[in-house]
Each structure stands twice: as structure tokens, then as C-alpha cells.
Amino acid sequence: MISVTTEQLNVWLAAFFWPLARILALIASAPVIGNPSVPARVKIGLAIFVTLLVAPLLPAPPSTDPASASGLLILAQQVLIGLAMGFTMGIVIHAAEMAGELIGLQMGLGFATLYDASVPGMIPVIGQYLGIVISLALLAVDGHLLMLSALVESFHVLPITPLSAPSGLRAVAEWGGKIFSYSLALSLPLLAALLITNLALGVLTRAAPQLNIFAVGFPLTILMGILILTLSFRYFAPAFERMLMASFTAILQVAAALR
To answer: Keyword set for this entry (predicted)?
Structure first.
């Protein structure tokens, strides 16, 4: 007759539910997979499937009762780690959307907004367009698989142990600052070109005051913005790839900083 003690049952539950908490938190907050349009059943099913594959390969969890105060603290810490890693990965998408917002404002399309369920809220159409493009680039370079690989590696970089304090949140905040640097790097060429266009329109208005700048300037600025954006896409691809690779490295750095 097979007998299972309470201690053995606690060890089995801890070995499954603590990794599940980190994996599910990352999947819920990661780009593409964590989009609100993806059903919750799919996210939970994917998290359980990944946990069943990964749990036997992980280091032994601490001998702590999952229902105790220490066990619940470890559970909360795993959720925090997963959310921090998912947020780190999503920085690249938000940087592209912010670059599109800057470009749209300079083009005169700041009023053209669409509802984005992932925010949720209204974002400029150029920002949503660049966000979709970099999301497709993420899938094209197998970023979803690299993200899961980095998640598994994080269990070796940061095993499931009782932590003293979330000191690694500073690393998450520092990585959050990359939104502004990445968005500026993506939008700067178009902003410079549109600034030159606006300066040329200003000189033209001074030379011909009878010219209706609103009838000529807005269509010309939008046309130039779309043209420059189209010509710049070949240079966006290497930048997107570098940003995505940097985000994968940052995931492990954040996990190591949370130690």
C-alpha cells in the first residue's frame, strides 16, 4: 500500500506551484503572449504545460510549508520576479510605441488614435503600428522561445529560496529608463527630417504670406512623414533586433539583481 506523508505532499506542491507562480506571472505580463486579447485559459494552460516540463529540472525547493507565512511570502516573491521579468521584456514594445507617438505628433497625426487593449487606452496610430511591427519582429526571431529559455535559465540564476528584500527592483527601474533612450533613438531621424520640413514651410510662409499654411503644411508634413518612415524601415530592423537581444540579456540581469 502506498502511503504519502504530509511532508512529502508539501514538497510536491511546492515544487510545482512556486515555479508555476513565476512562469504564470511572466506569461501574463510578457509582450504578445500576455496581450489581453489572448484568453486566460490559454495563458494558464501554457503556464501549466511549461511548468510540467521545467519543474523536474529545477533545483530542490526549500523545505517550507507552502501554506505557512514563509511559503506564502515565497509565492509572492515568485510572482514579483515573474512580473519584473515580463515588464523588462515589454520595455521594447513600449519604446517602439513611444517612438511612434513622438513621430505622430511631429507629423500632425497626434489626433489620430486607436484603442489599444494592452494599455488599455488610446494611443496614436503610428505608435500602434510600430508596436505591431516590433511584435512581429519578436516572433520572427523566435523571441517567444528565447523568452521561455531565459525564464528557465532564471531558475538557475535565481533559485526558489527565501529572499531578504526586493533590492533588484532598482534594476527594473533602471531598465525602465531605456524606454526614453530607445524611443528617442528610433524617432530621432524622422524628427530631424520633419523639423527640416517644418522649417522649410516656415521660410515659404514668410516668402509668400498669402499661402495658406494649414491647407499646404499639414498634408505635406504627413506625406513627408509617411515617406521617410517607409524609407527608414530597412534601418529599423537591425535596431529592433539589438533592442530585443538586449531585453533578453536584461531579463537575466534583473533576475540576478533580485537575488
So the answer is: Bacterial flagellum, Cell membrane, Cell projection, Cilium, Flagellum, Membrane, Transmembrane, Transmembrane helix
What three-state secondary structure class fits 34? Answer: coil
pLDDT in tens, the chain (259 residues): 456 566 666 667 777 788 888 888 888 888 878 777 788 888 888 888 888 888 887 777 777 777 777 778 888 888 888 888 888 788 888 888 888 888 877 777 766 666 665 556 667 777 788 888 888 878 887 777 888 888 888 887 777 776 554 555 666 666 667 777 777 777 888 888 888 888 887 787 777 777 676 677 777 787 888 888 888 777 777 777 777 777 777 777 766 666 5
> CB–CB of 55/232 below 8 Å?
no
Q: What is the pTM of this model?
A: 0.75
Q: Which distant-in-sequence residues (6+ apart) come within 8 Å of 252 by Cβ?
A: 150, 153, 154, 157
CB atoms within 10 A of CB 256: 13
DSSP string, 198-248: HHHHHHHHHH-TTS-HHHHHHHHHHHHHHHHHHHHHHHHHHHHHHHHHHHH
